[in-house]
Amino acid sequence: MTDRLRIKLDRTLCDGFGICAKHAPEYFSLDDWGYAVLVGDGDIPERDHDAVQRALMDCPVHAIMELTERRPDDAPIPEVNEPDLDQLKTEDNEAEWGFSR
Ligand code: SF4
């Protein structure tokens, strides 16, 4: 089984250094101002993992992120406990909480 690599680019973080386009020009191009644009849908075939991982790790502002997926063998998602309704502040008990209007 091959590992899947999916990435996304946050253009609001990009500072236009152009390192990504140098490492992986098939997946990153630069716009007229030198900011990176992701080419394609972010799915990276295995043959290009190294180049894209290099771009990801060398981006000085961490604008390139690896998207991870949960797999069946991952740890289970922790259960979210409902809040204790008796402990919640409401209009009915706000005097007990020390607030008044
Ligand atoms: S390496 Fe990072 S900061 Fe530089 S152009 Fe690419 S995404 Fe932008």
Description:
GO terms for molecular function: 3 iron, 4 sulfur cluster binding; metal ion binding. Residues 70-101 are annotated as: Disordered. Pfam families: Fer4_15 (PF13459). Keywords: 3Fe-4S, Electron transport, Iron, Iron-sulfur, Metal-binding, Transport. This is Ferredoxin. With 101 residues, the protein is of the alpha+beta class. It has a domain at 5-67: Alpha-Beta Plaits, CATH 3.30.70. 15% of the residues lie in helices and 17% in strands. The chain has helices at residues 19-23, 49-58; strands at 5-9, 28-30, 36-38, 43-44, 64-67. It has a 3-stranded antiparallel sheet, covered by helices on one side. The protein has a two-stranded antiparallel sheet with strand order 2-3. Strand 2 and strand 3 (36-38) form a beta hairpin. The longest helix is centred in the middle third of the chain and has 10 residues, at 49-58. The termini are far apart. Iron/sulfur cluster binds at residues 9, 14-20, 28, 36, 59-61, 63-64.
